[in-house]
Structures are given as C-alpha cells and as structure tokens.
Design goal:
Elements lengths: L5 E3 L2 H8 L10 H14 L1 E5 L10 E2 L2 E2 L7 H4 L4 H4 L13 H11 L3 E7 L26 H11 L3 E7 L24 H17 L6 E5 L8 H14 L4 E2 L7 E2 L4 E2 L26 E4 L17 H13 L3 E6 L9 H17 L7 E2 L8 E8 L2 E8 L8 E4 L5 E6 L3 E2 L3 E4 L3 E5 L11 E8 L4 E3 L10 E4 L4 E3 L4 E3 L6 E3 L7 E8 L3 E10 L8 E6 L2 E6 L10 E10 L3 E11 L7 E9 L6
Helix pairs in contact: 5-6, 5-10, 7-8, 9-10
Bound molecules: ligand H79.
C-alpha cells in the first residue's frame, strides 16, 4: 500500500509575505499591514540599554551582582535616596550619537530602540515632568534622545523608544519595593499613570517620527489591560504610524513573550532571550536578546556570544518570520563596548553579502532542516528560497527534504552563479556539485528559484523494526506559542511547555490497525511533577501522570498503557495536557508505540 504524502502548501510563507491575517479587530487589516510593512521587512534592530546603572556597572559597595546590571537597584536593594546621587556622576563625555548611529548602520540594522527610562526611573530625555532626568540631574545636561534620534534618522534608520511602565523611583508608583522606606500611603497610582502618559506624549511629540514604542515592566498588578489599551491609543493618536509592542498591555505570556490572543493590546510579541521554536503564521514578533548576560553595561560580564551564533540567531528569527532586536549596553563614558562593536561589524559584513536573504523575506516553508534554516520571497512566477547552510556538506551534495517544486536556478549569494545542479528525487530536491568547503563558515546562502509557491511534503512516520513506531520530539508538530522543540543534545525534547493549552502531535502511517503499548520518555523536576496528559489516536486514548525524574534534563522511559491505532493508513497521534501541576507540563522526548502480539492483553 502506498500513502499519499501530506502537503504543506507554504502556509507560513504566504501568510508572512502577504501578512494578510490581521490580528486586530479594531483596525482594518490593510491599514495595519501598511503600518507594519517597514518593520516586517526590517528583520534586524539594535537595542540600547543605557542609564545610570552603567556607572556601578553591576557592582555595589564592593559586591558584584551577576546578571542584568540595569536591575542593580533591585538586586542590591538600593533605596531611591541612595541611587539618585548616581546622576551627579553621569557625564559620558565620549558619547557621540553619530558614532553610535554609524555602528548601527554598519551592522545592517534598520532600527534602533533605546531606553528613554528603565525601571530605575531615570530619564535620558528632556522631560518637563520630572527632574530625575539627564537635563536637570546630571552634569552632562545634553538631551541624549534628541541627539540620537537625529543621528539615527540621518543614517536612514528609524528610532524606537523603550519606556518602562514599572518605576522604582517615582513617588506615585505602586507597589512599593520592600526595601524602599518611603511610606506607600503617600503614593497615588492614577496620578502616576497620568505622569506616564505625559512623558509618553513628550516622547511622541518632541522628537520627530518614532518607529516603535517598546514598553516594558507591565507585569505588576497595578497595571491593567485597560490602561494598556488606553496607552496604546494615546501613542496611535499622537503618531498614527507608530508600532507598539505587546508589553503595553497584559497580554504577554511569560518570557516566550507572545500575546495570549489577537485581542490583546500591542502590535507584536516580545520573546525575551529566546527564539520561538517554530514560525507563527499571522503573528508578528521580535526576539530581543543580549550579547552577554546583561542588558545594561556590566563590567565583569565577558560571557559573549560569538558572531557566528548571533548571525545564526538573526537567520533563525527570519526563518520563522520574526525580527531580531540585539542589545548593546554602552559604558558610563558613552562607548559601546568594543566586544559588541566587533560582533556587530561581523554581522554587518555577513549582511552586506547575504542581506537579500534576510531583509523583506518571509518564513521558509520547512518545519526543520537538518543543516540550517530557510527564508523565502516571492519573485515573478515563483519563489526564491534562501537556504542558509550552517553545516556545509563535505560531499558537495545538499538535500532539501520534501521540496516538490521545479527548480529554475541556483546561485550562492557569496559568489554568484555556480555549476551546481538540482534534481528532484523521491525525498525532495538534491543539489549537487557544490564546492567542498563552505564559502562562508557562518552561514552560506544558496538562493534557489522554484516555480510557484513552495510545496513541501512531509512524509509520515513509518513503523520501524518489529512494527515499533518511534515518535521523536524532533519530528513532532507543536501547536501553541510556548511549547517548542529544544534541539540541545543533552536536553533534546519538547520543552518550555508552560501553557497547558499547547499540544503536540505526530503524523504517522501504519499498515494495519492494532493495539500498541505506549512508552513515554520524559523529564520533570520533582517539585513540578503531577501534571496529567492524554495520548490519543483516533478514538482511543491513554492517560498519564508526569512523574518527577532527577530534573528537567533527566529523561526516563515509562509504560503508560495501551491504545488502539486505527489503520491501515495515516494516523495522528497527539499528546494533550489535561492539567498542569505547577509551572510546566513536562519535557517530552519521545513516545514509543509497540504493537502487542495477538494473544497479548
Ligand atoms: O530591559 C530588559 C530587562 O531589564 C527587562 N526586559 C529586558 C528587555 C526585564 N525585565 N524583567 N526581566 C527582564 C526578567 C526579570 C528577571 C528577574 Fe532578575 C529575575 C528579575 C529578578 C530576578 C535578573 C536577575 C534581574 C535581576 C536578577
């Protein structure tokens, strides 16, 4: 018997290139698409975290606090009265807005988002509503935001404002920090909201066109979705074209950062320090990430990601239809750390050759590629698929599994036209005759023109020896925004399963119906055990309870029970959480469905 293959008709590609699916009821889809068009094409932005925290740079009273230096006030439990005098030392004489803008432009970013105010409440712009700002409280006395926004625009890039809703300094902000001695009784949170709106108004009226409003610190109970929607409306009223992130409201779900539903405030999801496991058709998102372990300048933090890793993360985002907002934390003197500049230069160099495969592209049509990632764009009569090869084939043969289209041309962005040939076989497209060494060790882009929209056939999983069906995390379809495939060797699994609505399924094909024992391999921190889940196929199911293993990385296999697989033919096998004990369901590595011999039972 032969099985017709599932056809995934470049769904992610078309929805992202056309971006037709409007997530927002109150705004016409065409208007939203027009507003977001530049941002969707940009794909790469630079984040700048700069403020008074660059002075202590992670160190307070002789103690070094690891992690995020902009959180020092929290980590070292510094009162506002103790923190304020830092402003008298803020004199970044080496600050040169044009030098920063040049670094950004050279890196190939299309927009720059900078902290106008972080959680510590210090304002880097000239505000009439507070004296804890760069003009009134520092010897520097220059409007950093004015200088930077002018310089950034002069280089053809857009400026974006990060602005913290959370404020550890403002007397009206609530809740009070536990270490802050000021009596909370004097605070008036509605008055703080008025102040916040006044400052947002300044940011959107005094500095010319603003590309993005990037809010943060929305998670405390005092902030509501209604305040968020009002604030978003204010931004839109002042600058109709402005793009607002989802942290303006309460719709963000954890560090995965995507909005709970399409009615949530904001235009785009904000995964932080992480990239979604799969593309999310119709959803706009931007992963923000540090190059080391801190957003603000941290003197002792030398844990830099490599240029290769950073370029590949940008590619990863683009291949899933998202943007990458990469952070730098300038020093108190006003310099972007040399380690950051060096990495940005390398990214710019790669983009100068391969930018065509990033800017203005949409998600690639593949769920997973063994050697890298793919992006794509429409061309006359077809699609140009960009194959970003991380692991170059030493034999010069690159296999593109499942691709069914006629190939019209192949070239390497690094070196132009090549002699390689493309042929279709039962597995997909086979590109042969590539040079034996990778032309670019970071990622070599093979541009492949195909007729029509990409058609990718994902072959069903077939039983192996003894009729055993092995359903591995790597082959699963993950449905939802939190759970995702984690490829790391020691922890290969479906992880980050923090939303019990997320489900996992496999597409299999069997020769005959039959009863199968279900074995599950999973890991779970003992303290998080107790979630329940159901494994189902057709009308048959078996329920399981997640037991604690040695930890999230300690995988154990256990027998769950038996299910009846329908057949012969295609069958979807799903894992659906039925309850979540604590913060996450489990780390799921695989299922094994072992046929029971006739007579067993
Ligand atoms: O601005 C950057 C971060 O400061 C901010 N968002 C990005 C864009 C951010 N807010 N919250 N978080 C990041 C996550 C909070 C992490 C915490 Fe911690 C863990 C806060 C307290 C414990 C990290 C470790 C910060 C202080 C100690």
């Amino acid at each position: 018997m032969r099985w017709s293959a599932a056809i995934v008709r470049g769904a992610a590609l078309s929805s992202l290139l056309v971006a037709g699916a409007s997530a927002r009821a109150q705004e016409p889809a065409e208007q939203r698409d027009a507003r977001l068009a530049w941002w969707r094409e940009a794909r790469f932005g630079m984040f700048i975290h700069w403020g008074l925290y660059a002075i202590p740079a992670g160190e307070w009273k002789g103690r070094v606090f690891g992690g995020a230096s902009e959180w020092l006030m929290h980590s070292a439990r510094i009162t506002p009265a103790e923190y304020e005098p830092l402003a008298t030392r803020f004199n970044p004489v080496k600050f040169d807005a044009d030098a920063w803008a040049a670094i950004a432009a050279d890196a190939g970013v299309k927009y720059v988002v900078i902290t106008t105010k972080h959680h510590d409440g210090f304002c880097l712009f000239d505000t009439a509503h507070d004296t804890f700002d760069v003009m009134d409280a520092t010897p520097f006395g220059r409007d950093v935001m004015k200088e930077l926004s002018d310089a950034v625009r002069a280089r053809g890039l857009r400026i974006g404002w990060y602005h913290s809703i959370l404020d550890w300094h403002h007397p009206d902000y609530l809740p009070r920090r536990t270490w802050d001695p000021r009596p909370a009784g004097d605070a008036d949170f509605p008055r703080y909201v008025g102040h916040l709106r006044d400052q947002v108004t300044e940011l959107l009226t005094k500095y010319g066109p603003v590309g993005v409003m990037w809010f943060d610190g929305e998670w405390e109970d005092t902030w509501t979705e209604a305040s968020g929607k009002d604030l978003e409306a204010l931004c839109r009223k002042l600058q109709p074209g402005v793009i607002v992130n989802n942290r303006v409201g309460k719709g963000r779900e954890g560090m995965a950062g995507l909005s709970r539903d399409e009615h949530a405030a904001g235009d785009f999801g904000t995964p932080e320090q992480t990239v979604p496991g799969t593309g999310l058709p119709g959803v706009d998102w931007e992963s923000c990430m540090t190059m080391n372990d801190s957003w603000g300048y941290h003197r002792g933090d030398e844990n830099w990601k490599s240029s290769t890793e950073l370029v590949r993360t940008l590619i990863d985002c683009a291949s899933k239809g998202g943007n990458f907002l990469l952070n730098v934390g300038p020093s108190a003197e006003g310099e972007i750390p040399p380690a950051s500049v060096e990495r940005l230069r390398a990214m710019g160099a790669w983009l100068r050759v391969n930018g065509e495969a990033i800017y203005g592209t949409g998600a690639g049509p593949f769920r997973r590629l063994p050697w890298g990632r793919a992006t794509a764009r429409r061309i006359a009569g077809g699609t140009r698929v960009y194959l970003h090869v991380f692991d170059w084939p030493a034999d010069g043969v690159l296999r593109v599994p499942g691709l069914r289209n006629e190939v019209r041309g192949i070239s390497l962005l690094a070196s132009g036209l090549i002699d390689a040939t493309a042929a279709r076989d039962t597995v997909g497209v086979v590109i042969a005759g590539l040079p034996p060494a990778p032309p670019d060790p970071i990622a070599t882009v093979v541009a492949m023109d195909v007729a029509g929209e990409p058609i990718v056939e994902v072959a069903p999983i077939r039983p192996g020896g003894g009729g055993v069906l092995v359903l591995d995390a790597a082959d699963a379809d993950v449905h939802g925004a939190s759970a995702r495939y984690e490829p790391r060797d020691d922890r290969r699994c479906i992880g980050f399963w923090t939303d019990a609505r997320d489900t996992v399924s496999w597409d299999a094909a069997v020769d005959a119906p039959g009863r199968h024992d279900v074995w599950v391999t999973l890991a779970c921190e003992p303290g998080e055990a107790g979630s329940t889940f159901r494994v189902a196929a057709g009308t048959s199911w078996v329920d399981g309870v997640v037991m604690g293993t040695g930890g999230w990385g300690e995988f154990r296999e256990t027998w769950l029970g038996a299910i009846d697989l329908p057949g012969p033919g295609r069958v979807a096998i799903t894992v659906t959480p039925t309850s979540m004990a604590r913060g996450a369901v489990m780390n799921l590595r695989s299922l094994r469905l072992v046929p029971q011999r006739r007579g067993d039972r």
